Amino acid sequence: MAQQGHSEACCTVPPAVVGDYKPKGDYIDLDGMQVYTTGPSTATSAIFIIYDIFGFSSQALQGADILAHADQHHQYQVFMPDFFYGKPIHPSIFPPDNEEKKKQLGDFFAGPASPPDTAKKVPDLVQKLGDKYTGVKKWASLGMCWGGKIVSLTSQSGTPFSAAAEVHPAMVDPNDATGFKIPVCMLASGDEKAEDVENFKKNLRVENHVETFGDQIHGWMAARADLKNERVKSEYERGYGTLLDFYHRYL
Question: For residue 10, what pLDDT band results from cuts at 50, 70 and 90?
Fold first, then answer.
């Protein structure tokens, strides 16, 4: 299932910052939606990140900065919109081990985190960002956890992206894979159902890199990354290096 091997970008990805992280980018207002933006304005390729349900976590922001700046020979403009308008799910909801928490989580996924409704917003956001940042000629996407599902839904016919990536994706559906029109990288954790990841890869008809980081938990490249753990930190860095290698091939 997995394609593995030496990652050139892993040699350029800086060590992840443990503890308080100071983001390198800025926040802009895009028609009332806050967007984290990072990377040199001279970069002609951009990565559109769809975060996980915890919103602007420090681990996700650090990941965006890594993608933007790590390889000085191939940098990107990176944009991460705040789809939840400052109201992501609170970490205390997990685990959803009582009826109240289950209801809150269900309401969140039926409302602000509805995958179909979110996916419909993506092309317009990319268009607006493209109108504002006219130097960008090619776009790629990255979905974290919940965002991975949005990436699957926006990689079908008519996609504005040239390449797509999903890390520890939620709601993996092998049926989504059949409609992909662009190259895709999927980095799964040990928590995703192995059969779903396997069948997703089998159904792809596009160039792809599918790899499982078997000893990592769902969320290790985003809000649930415990970067004080040396193994997690190492695989966090390797994951972002793998993404850079992938994007370099198509952007």
Answer: very low
